[in-house]
Amino acid sequence: NPIPYAKEDLNLTITIGDAPGPATQYTVTYDANGGEVTPASETVNQGAFVSLSTPEREGLIFAGWKPTGGETLDPTATQYVPTASITLTAQWKAPAPTGLTGVMPTTVDGNDGKSTGVTTDMDYKPQPGDSYLPCSGTEITGLTAGTYEIRTKGGVDYLPSDPVQVIVPAKEPEHVTGVCRIGVDMYTTLE
Known about the structure:
Layout: E1 25-31, E2 41-45, E3 50-51, E4 61-67, E5 79-80, E6 86-93, E7 101-103, E8 113-116, E9 122-126, E10 133-134, E11 139-143, E12 146-152, E13 164-168, E14 178-183, E15 186-190
Parallel strand pairs: 1-6
Antiparallel strand pairs: 1-2, 3-5, 4-6, 7-8, 8-11, 9-10, 9-12, 12-13, 14-15
């Protein structure tokens, strides 16, 4: 129900103050780190996100944007909300090697197995193993049967590739057949 009032009873005060200032804006600058990206920068209001572009660099794989002083973002991230003006630097990695083959040793428990298809741009380590060793040609020799990780080395401004597992198969003992003398006039067949 409306409350009746007289015009004389109405006392209205209007205070005019400063209008709110412009919204805080942040600029996100993209450093393609040897690659190409469009746009080179974006400016957004505080609390808004930028749509992350995927840069390109010949011969390398995009590994994510790294904020100044922060951790690298997932390379599939599509948005980023800045909390200050910042530079995002593209992180790159080498492509994983392909065409690698493990070749079994020629003897049981032998150490003359190998992996073919490598280059001097790669390194390897046995599994389990801690340290990568450089590849010095087109094959790694002197390997025992087992699993090896092979990757393309990193460079000054890019990371090593994800490792590829190569299996050097074990040489199976040869199956012996024949006849063996086990006593006077006693023979058996070996299989």
